[in-house]
Amino acid sequence: MFFKISRVTSRRFIQLSIPFIFMFIFLSTSTIVAAHEKESYRVGVNSLNVRSEPNLQSSIIGSLSEQMVVKVDKVRNGWAHVNYSGVNGWVASQYLSKTNDFSTSAKEAFVNVESAFIRSGPSIDHVIIGSSFSGDSLEKIATEGKWLKVRLNSGKVGWIAGWLVNNSSTNTSAPPSSDSPLKGVNVVLDAGHGGYDPGAVGMNGLLEKHPTLKTTNRIAQRLRKAGATVIMTRETDRYLSLQDRVQITRSYYTDAFISVHYNSSSTPYAEGISTYYYHDAGKALATSIQQHLSQNVSLQNDGIQFGNYHVLRENIENSVLLELGFLSTSSDLAAIQSEGYANRVAKAISAGLINQYSN
């Protein structure tokens, strides 16, 4: 048996059903939102853009750094709505992972140098608005490139270079020592080249970027033992532009910048070590370091020289660049690769800085 449904009845059925359909959709959506409300999520990428609306066309209003933990109150079409330090925005939810940890380590940064500038914006071109000191805890608000937007204990908000802080309160600066002639001296050590920039190539295939990093690590150990605060422009085999190296130096109060290199020449008999300076004020530091290098290293002493290099010219006045021997000359190369060479260089540079800054 078949029943006929009149047009009036069917129209009335649809009219009655629509409110229930919308109610069902609303309840389903509410359930999805409620599942994420007040839950903590950790950022899983280096930098995650925060947008004003849940789409790629909306404006970027900030960014979250890796490992930062945020509260998510709702999710919509692959976008999570977050609140961080009073700012509301949307991030791509696939870059978040749920966590029960909302510890301060994800929200705080600790200054790991003796003193650091706080600036009005995320670059060294912005005005210095304050300072922070070793061990200070700063609340992370946002990131832009390699800079962190932070809130100081005083409530003041500004920007600090990300390489001057870490996520632990453990201080990585110089260990306590009863004999610290360089205590209070801030030194930036720059291992030349790196990453896809190999630098000079030795006659045996040795790439300059490797001994520069090895030597710089030894120098850092020696300086820290003498009490200095040391910042490395690179600690791994990675590329840095010349301006990156200058920016690192100018991001905090630096007493001395030392760039470490090894030389090369088409002339097979070129040899020796030399120290370059650009600013007149850096000549005394160059002289002190070169004097101690000549006393500790057996290679020919080529003296100090004026050098129109970007990392010297655009940098602080007490900036020097070292050429610690020729990779293209067999006698120099043998000395450079000998056991203890990097240690002798480190001892000489430490003595040169002590002579310059401890009097």
Automatic annotation (TrEMBL):
Q: Which Pfam families match?
A: Amidase_3 (PF01520), SH3_3 (PF08239)
InterPro entries listed in its UniProt record: MurNAc-LAA_cat, N-acetylmuramoyl_amidase_3, SH3-like_bac-type
| Keywords, ordered alphabetically | Cell wall biogenesis/degradation, Hydrolase
- SUPFAM superfamilies linked to this entry: Zn-dependent exopeptidases
Q: Where is the SH3b domain?
A: 38-100, 106-168
Q: Name one GO cellular component term.
A: outer membrane-bounded periplasmic space
- Biological processes, Gene Ontology terms: cell wall organization; peptidoglycan catabolic process
What GO annotations for molecular function exist for this entry? Answer: N-acetylmuramoyl-L-alanine amidase activity
Record's protein name? SH3b domain-containing protein
